[in-house]
TrEMBL record:
<dbReference type="InterPro" id="IPR013785">
    <property type="entry name" value="Aldolase_TIM"/>
</dbReference>
<feature type="binding site">
    <location>
        <begin position="235"/>
        <end position="236"/>
    </location>
    <ligand>
        <name>substrate</name>
    </ligand>
</feature>
<keyword id="KW-0324">Glycolysis</keyword>
<keyword id="KW-0312">Gluconeogenesis</keyword>
<dbReference type="GO" id="GO:0006096">
    <property type="term" value="P:glycolytic process"/>
</dbReference>
<feature type="binding site">
    <location>
        <begin position="9"/>
        <end position="11"/>
    </location>
    <ligand>
        <name>substrate</name>
    </ligand>
</feature>
<dbReference type="InterPro" id="IPR000652">
    <property type="entry name" value="Triosephosphate_isomerase"/>
</dbReference>
<feature type="binding site">
    <location>
        <position position="174"/>
    </location>
    <ligand>
        <name>substrate</name>
    </ligand>
</feature>
<dbReference type="InterPro" id="IPR020861">
    <property type="entry name" value="Triosephosphate_isomerase_AS"/>
</dbReference>
<feature type="active site" description="Proton acceptor">
    <location>
        <position position="168"/>
    </location>
</feature>
<dbReference type="GO" id="GO:0004807">
    <property type="term" value="F:triose-phosphate isomerase activity"/>
</dbReference>
<comment type="similarity">
    <text>Belongs to the triosephosphate isomerase family.</text>
</comment>
<feature type="binding site">
    <location>
        <position position="214"/>
    </location>
    <ligand>
        <name>substrate</name>
    </ligand>
</feature>
<comment type="subunit">
    <text>Homodimer.</text>
</comment>
<dbReference type="GO" id="GO:0005829">
    <property type="term" value="C:cytosol"/>
</dbReference>
<dbReference type="GO" id="GO:0019563">
    <property type="term" value="P:glycerol catabolic process"/>
</dbReference>
<dbReference type="GO" id="GO:0046166">
    <property type="term" value="P:glyceraldehyde-3-phosphate biosynthetic process"/>
</dbReference>
């Protein structure tokens, strides 16, 4: 039985002051989530990681939104995995469509980051998903398949199920235009099939696959009751602490 996972993604939002206020209010949520066998957390901007982690400790998962695959070096503006580990951060989003779109991140590059995170016993949340154009051309599955195959290159069967996959059709992110639960389930089930082909059913039954794209408190349940959707990656609705809390309460 896969545990449900609810992850927020703040993107480039919240000053340290705002982040601390949110964390203080959200602190008790982790216990409630765990009592209902749900894992819950937020991925936050680098500057917010230390103060938010200090408040939340192990109550909610606190993750980063990106990292560099190298341990150190002359890469101005980048953050390394040892820097995250030093803050006791063990989760990190990789390959969000905004990073692919605005910072030209490729699946090959994501693969290096995934391998580096796994090497460090951390949890990559690997995002995949097609553009509106690809969707309208009916090429969603072949596009996502390539992202998955490249992203998982050289990931061992032992490590594969430690990766969390987030299927996020780009046309549904921040647009209020959700993929229907049927579309989301169809693609998530397709992704599970690729993992089965690559690693066998033990891994494919274990790996968690999230849906992301305009998930709100009023629609979260319809996604999370699908067979192959194990949770949600939530942007906009994770910014307001009340709406973040409602994501959980509306699931119970
Ligand atoms: C996201 O940031 O990954 C996301 C899905 O955003 P939103 O929920 O706002 O569509």
């Amino acid at each position: 039985m896969r545990r449900k996972l609810l992850l927020g993604n703040w993107k480039m939002n919240k000053t340290v002051t705002e982040a601390k206020a949110f964390a203080t209010e959200a602190k008790t949520l982790g216990r409630e989530a765990r009592a209902n066998k749900i894992d819950m957390g937020i991925c936050v901007p680098y500057v917010d990681l230390a103060p938010v982690k200090k408040i939340l400790k192990n109550s909610l998962i606190v993750g980063a939104e990106n990292c560099n695959e190298l341990d150190h070096g002359a890469y101005t503006g980048e953050i390394s995995i040892p820097m995250l580990k030093d803050l006791n951060i063990s989760w990190c989003i990789i390959g969000h469509s905004e990073r692919r779109m605005y910072y030209a991140e490729t699946s090959e590059h994501c693969n290096k980051k995934i391998l580096a995170l796994l090497e460090n016993k951390m949890t990559p949340v690997y995002c995949c998903g097609e553009s509106l154009e690809t969707y309208e051309e009916g090429k969603t599955k072949e596009f996502v398949e390539e992202q998955i195959r490249v992203g998982f290159k050289n990931v061992s069967a032992e490590d594969a199920s430690k990766v969390v996959i987030a299927y996020e059709p780009i046309w549904s992110i921040g647009t209020g235009k959700n993929a229907s639960k049927e579309i989301a389930e169809d693609v998530c089930s397709f992704i599970r099939g690729i993992i089965k082909e690559l690693y066998g059913s033990k891994v494919s039954n274990k790996i968690r696959i999230l849906y992301g794209g305009s998930v709100k408190p009023n629609n979260i349940k319809e996604y999370l009751t699908q067979d192959d959707i194990d949770g949600a990656l939530v942007g906009g609705a994770s910014l307001d602490v009340n709406s973040y809390k409602e994501l959980l309460t509306n699931l119970l």
